[in-house]
Amino acid sequence: MQNPILKGLSWAKQPPILVSPSSHTLPSLLIIGRKIKLKNNNNSSNFKKRRKKEWNHPHRSGSGIRGGKYRAMPCSSIETSNITCGGGGGGEENGRFRNFKLNESTFLASLMPKKEIGADRFIEAHAHYDGRGALIAIFDSGVDPAAAGLQLTSDGKPKILDVIDCTGSGDVDTSEVVKADGDGRIHGASGASLVVNSSWKNPSGEWHVGYKLVYELFTDTLTSRLKKERKKKWDEKNQVEIAKAVMHLDEFDQKHTKVEDPKLKRTREDLQNRIDILRKLADSYNDKGPVIDAVVWHDGEVWRVAFDTQSLEDDHKCGTLADFVPLTNYRIERKYGVFSKLDACTFVVNVYDEGNILSIVTDSSPHGTHVAGIATAFHPQEPLLNGVAPGAQLISCKIGDSRLGSMETGTGLTRALIAAVEHKCDLINMSYGEPTLLPDYGRFVDLVNEVVNKHRLIFVSSAGNSGPALSTVGAPGGTSSSIIGVGAYVSPEMAAGAHSVVEPPPEGLEYTWSSRGPTVDGDLGVCISAPGGAVAPVPTWTLQGRMLMNGTSMASPSACGGIALLISAMKAEGIPVSPYSVRKALENTSVLVGCLPEDKLTTGQGLMQVDKAYEYIQKSREFSCVWYQIKINQSGKSTSTSRGIYLREATACQQSTEWAVQVEPKFHEDASKLEELVPFEECIELHSSDNAVVRAPEYLLLTHNGRTFNIVVDPTSLSDGLHYYEVYGIDCKAPWRGPLFRIPITITKPMAVMNRPPLISFSRMSFLPGHIERRYIQVPLGACWVEATMQTFGFDTTRRFYVDTVQICPLRRPIKWESVVTFSSPTAKSFAFPVVSGQTMELAIAQFWSSGMGSHETTIVDFEIVFHGIGVNRTEVVLDGSEAPIRIEAEALLALEKLAPSAVLNKIRIPYRPTEAKLCTLPTNRDRLPSGKQILALKLTYNFKLEDGAEVKPHIPLLNNRIYDTKFESQFYMISDTNKRVYAMGDCYPNSSKLPKGEYTLQLHLRHDNVQYLEKMKQLVLFLERNLEEKDVVRLNFFSEPDGPVMGNGTFKSSVLVPGKKESFYLSPPNKDKIPKNSSQGSVFLGAISHGTLSYAKEGKNPQKNPVSYQICYVVPPNKTDEDKGKVSSSACSKPIAELLEEEVRDAKLKVFGSLKQDTDEGRSEWKKLAQSLKSEYPKYTPLLVKILESLLSQSNIGDKVHHYEEVIGAADEVVDSIDRDELAKFFSLKSDPEDEDAEKNKKKMETTRDQLAEALYQKGLALAEIESVKDEKASALGASEGTKDLDQTGDSALGSDIQSDLFEENFKELMKWVDLRSSKYGTLSVLRERRCGRLGTALKVLNDMIQDDGEPPKKKLYELKLSLLDDIGWSHLSTYERQWMHVRFPPSLPLF
């Protein structure tokens, strides 16, 4: 009989969109996904960019998927069922696994591995130490409290104590306060009328309101599903309306066989327009999602929250505000809601700042729930699927920002640490990270150190998924001393069960993609290993109960759950919990994976063993909780302090070196000075793992203040390749404690490339699944790029290989090139990638751990590397804006090379200073550090204008591309237009965003608790970078003579460089006429310059496609002086001084008149008096009459609308009467001489007069239409209230309407003489005219054309007019759609940061 729990398993049907581990990020999430076409060349990276953490950005997975961009992401990967992945046995059974057969129990156990780390044995022996009493903070993408196994602990307590969105991505501004009317109605922030439930307690009667576009709370995957389902329903409604429209047109055609009458023609055109509009909208449909109204109030005890979600429901009787069951902050009642059955998305709420901020918490990917399930899930019906610590409780700290596709932000990380301390958590698990510039450095690391050392939290994190090359561990998990970094291990059971491989490996091994140490400062990097895959719970919106994911993201919570078991035991037995003692127990009881010393760089100290660690903790409970900080400096050198010894370059391996090692015992901050620090004294026996290479003193007496000793490392007799050693200290009095501290020593002795041309080959390398070959090569001086060939032999089924290279340079992220290559049959593949001259390069070739399983065929690989290089005296070139060319000197140091320079400028970067800087203290407790300091925020505002639509990317050189290795806390920006519509958001890894023409505001939000740091940033320079269109790309020329750019001769094309002989040429600055117009002074054009080409490729015009290119920039010089500036026209000079003076006085009066405000009755009265005075003083003066009309139009708070519009009509008539229309028409019927200065000036004057006339006629037409509309409304209201009307009054009203209609038509025809009435400026009148004639389809078409042609930001009035037309026609599905878009186009305010 099938186990009922199996019915919930849908690991064979996962969505084809999750990601795999990323390099520059540390994904731990390999999701089963569709195949991606791979490119094998030019895939280099300097670890500068982060990868998104969403599912649809594949990087590297069990399927061999790897991507080019690096963005921080969860350290995990999700795998598809058609991909074979697996690994070895653990614990005491880390041995052979041949001829193993799964049964139901072992299969279920393999889905949630626990045997590998001894957790099952431990719980079996200590049933009540199953995590009870342990509280874990899950720093991740958010945890779904409704997911399977995450409701209760094994002892019946609530599983999740709090759910927090630390990023602010779900924040809603609820600062607007409203009161309910007598019927219990309130005005919602979205504009909807809402009915509150009469049973809700609200002593103050104040309701805080806000709204949220619901798609902003959902993942891209969920949004995509909802859009498809909603589009299907929308299409059905639209098709009904199309059918109706076609039927009406058909009926018209049958009734009117010949259409000759103009009115009938326009009627038919209107019917056809309706059909066309419906069909066009079906093609352009873009669902921005429903809007939900939020209401917050205080019931006298707690803050309450309710939502109106009718827009999500098919039945609008469902989802009403009054029917919502109010929620409060999750930690108070631990209740959650679901938006609708359609989305099945769970959410919780938290209220901050006295009801002014509402946080709606949803997860930003399934990752966090999966992680939480591995650590703590409890399934009483199927214990084999329990998480590692089913008795543990947790809090969910969402650090993956939904606005950024689930990337972490500095804000999220800091708030998560604050929450973990506030809740008195024991453990933190964080399965996120990325490569870093500096290890064990940065603001976040500083805060983590405080949390660990002062508050005794144990911090566990994934090491990363950027293997198999060395030095690929990421921050913070693999690079921070205070954090336990975890590598990913796969056992034979996991391979056979969870990964369903045909034949599992004989023993356990590390996943191929698991990141390796050491860090660039020599620390081991990986602390321990744990199972890196599981079938665990996922959020309800995924519409499945569980999912298979693998990666170090899964290894970290496995280890964290194991540590929770230890904490459970320690608390029960009264043993003080300390991250120092727990870490030592884990490291000293782990089981080695692999038999070589250097395997520690892959697995850390080995596979953790909970039961053995527990015994160690019991035995060592009387010892002080101490962490031994290691600081190492090379004797005689002023190099920076490191945490290990890492000899990587050739010069470091050619002689013995002496190193000063400082060992400093660190106690927790609350340690007693007299009882713990003063008595501390340990006799340490020092051991070297190989005295022939590493020599150290024999003994050391260690006290609280630490000791320094020297060690000598002699690598001279070592063979080429990787070597790993340790110096470790043993307690003489208690040697059973194992190493108290370790000093890792990694030596990668590179082989030199002596032959010329520089070529090196590795032949007959043998590969089986999971096997890795590493080669270390000293890149020859003068080499810039590599051309490599990989030839495979002797296998049957398809083979997948990872090919990685890594070089390490000071103060740079490891320079990594990578490729995943698949061989379906024996063949050869070529690669090309850049290298750094003179630096050691690791070449790591790995057969993917599950590739070729069951084949028993060994794969033979030949790998050949040829180094190429062209050395130049200038790598990055700066053209300073002058006409002088730049001289470039080139030489080939290795072999003959073709010199074929190419350079382009294809980007522009424009600098901006902030127009406003506001510094404030953040108001909520979530922004108060454990030290008590309140975090401050600096908001910088930048304004910019785009003359044409473009893709722009903000660039802040000081802050960008660093999240962990920076001392600044966080940054976040948003770009909005003049309507407050947000077009782009981003953090330290900005993306390009497509913006239409218009004016924009960029707001940058910086946070820190140190006001001095923020004060220094108030004038922070920001660049806006945009790609040039292909037509604007500037291609630069090269010359063999210094005067070539001016004379136009001596063009340099190409030549062959001979080693030992230099050649020079000149790079010409761009021609000034090639520089795009409107390029402001100080802007910088960016591009690339290359000098060589691939030996097997054709010459190309794009230097960025060559293997090596360098940045080139051109600084825009000052614009040429305007020769016409300062000239005075002859006509102005001919006027008498008295006349000129009189004109100046008149213009000054008009200026003052135009500035008068009419906010009050007194102000309006003064304005009217002055208007009459000026009209009598300057009769028929058109500019004055235009000012009067403009002032009337700008009035607000209008009481009597009819009277106001009659005043507008009168003012417009005065403008029209002041203009000689016959003279104007006569002028425009003749052509003027463009060479005649006075004629041109007169032309401009007449054009201005024509525009004034047209504007007056236009405003008059609008006023006439408004009067008609107001009177119709009054008549309708009167008819509805009285039922009947006096016949005489009706007649008068009808007569007035006819007169009004005649005036409108007369005015319309007059305006038609002067302007195009279908243009975006005057088209509104055409729309109103068509509407008055009942041709709503034509009116809507004209309006749509106006909106389409309008190059400026959308005008709200036009869209409001569109909504009223849709309502009049009766297309409710379209009006609903447009109303949702109104919240996107015209939000009342900018969203919160």
From TrEMBL:
<dbReference type="InterPro" id="IPR015500">
    <property type="entry name" value="Peptidase_S8_subtilisin-rel"/>
</dbReference>
<feature type="active site" description="Charge relay system">
    <location>
        <position position="140"/>
    </location>
</feature>
<dbReference type="InterPro" id="IPR036852">
    <property type="entry name" value="Peptidase_S8/S53_dom_sf"/>
</dbReference>
<dbReference type="InterPro" id="IPR022398">
    <property type="entry name" value="Peptidase_S8_His-AS"/>
</dbReference>
<feature type="domain" description="Tripeptidyl peptidase II second Ig-like">
    <location>
        <begin position="894"/>
        <end position="1078"/>
    </location>
</feature>
<dbReference type="InterPro" id="IPR048384">
    <property type="entry name" value="TPPII_GBD"/>
</dbReference>
<dbReference type="Pfam" id="PF21223">
    <property type="entry name" value="TPPII_Ig-like-1"/>
</dbReference>
<dbReference type="GO" id="GO:0004177">
    <property type="term" value="F:aminopeptidase activity"/>
</dbReference>
<feature type="active site" description="Charge relay system">
    <location>
        <position position="553"/>
    </location>
</feature>
<dbReference type="Pfam" id="PF12580">
    <property type="entry name" value="TPPII"/>
</dbReference>
<dbReference type="GO" id="GO:0006508">
    <property type="term" value="P:proteolysis"/>
</dbReference>
<feature type="domain" description="Tripeptidyl-peptidase II first Ig-like">
    <location>
        <begin position="639"/>
        <end position="747"/>
    </location>
</feature>
<dbReference type="Pfam" id="PF00082">
    <property type="entry name" value="Peptidase_S8"/>
</dbReference>
<dbReference type="Pfam" id="PF21316">
    <property type="entry name" value="TPPII_GBD"/>
</dbReference>
<keyword id="KW-0720">Serine protease</keyword>
<dbReference type="InterPro" id="IPR050131">
    <property type="entry name" value="Peptidase_S8_subtilisin-like"/>
</dbReference>
<dbReference type="InterPro" id="IPR023828">
    <property type="entry name" value="Peptidase_S8_Ser-AS"/>
</dbReference>
<keyword id="KW-0031">Aminopeptidase</keyword>
<comment type="similarity">
    <text>Belongs to the peptidase S8 family.</text>
</comment>
<keyword id="KW-0378">Hydrolase</keyword>
<feature type="domain" description="Tripeptidyl-peptidase II galactose-binding">
    <location>
        <begin position="767"/>
        <end position="851"/>
    </location>
</feature>
<feature type="domain" description="Peptidase S8/S53">
    <location>
        <begin position="131"/>
        <end position="598"/>
    </location>
</feature>
<dbReference type="InterPro" id="IPR046940">
    <property type="entry name" value="TPPII_Ig-like_sf"/>
</dbReference>
<dbReference type="InterPro" id="IPR046939">
    <property type="entry name" value="TPPII_C_sf"/>
</dbReference>
<feature type="region of interest" description="Disordered">
    <location>
        <begin position="41"/>
        <end position="68"/>
    </location>
</feature>
<protein>
    <recommendedName>
        <fullName>tripeptidyl-peptidase II</fullName>
        <ecNumber>3.4.14.10</ecNumber>
    </recommendedName>
</protein>
<feature type="active site" description="Charge relay system">
    <location>
        <position position="367"/>
    </location>
</feature>
<dbReference type="GO" id="GO:0005829">
    <property type="term" value="C:cytosol"/>
</dbReference>
<dbReference type="InterPro" id="IPR022229">
    <property type="entry name" value="TPPII_Ig-like-2"/>
</dbReference>
<dbReference type="GO" id="GO:0008240">
    <property type="term" value="F:tripeptidyl-peptidase activity"/>
</dbReference>
<dbReference type="InterPro" id="IPR034051">
    <property type="entry name" value="TPP_II_domain"/>
</dbReference>
<feature type="compositionally biased region" description="Basic residues">
    <location>
        <begin position="47"/>
        <end position="60"/>
    </location>
</feature>
<dbReference type="GO" id="GO:0004252">
    <property type="term" value="F:serine-type endopeptidase activity"/>
</dbReference>
<dbReference type="InterPro" id="IPR000209">
    <property type="entry name" value="Peptidase_S8/S53_dom"/>
</dbReference>
<dbReference type="InterPro" id="IPR048383">
    <property type="entry name" value="TPPII_Ig-like-1"/>
</dbReference>
<keyword id="KW-0645">Protease</keyword>
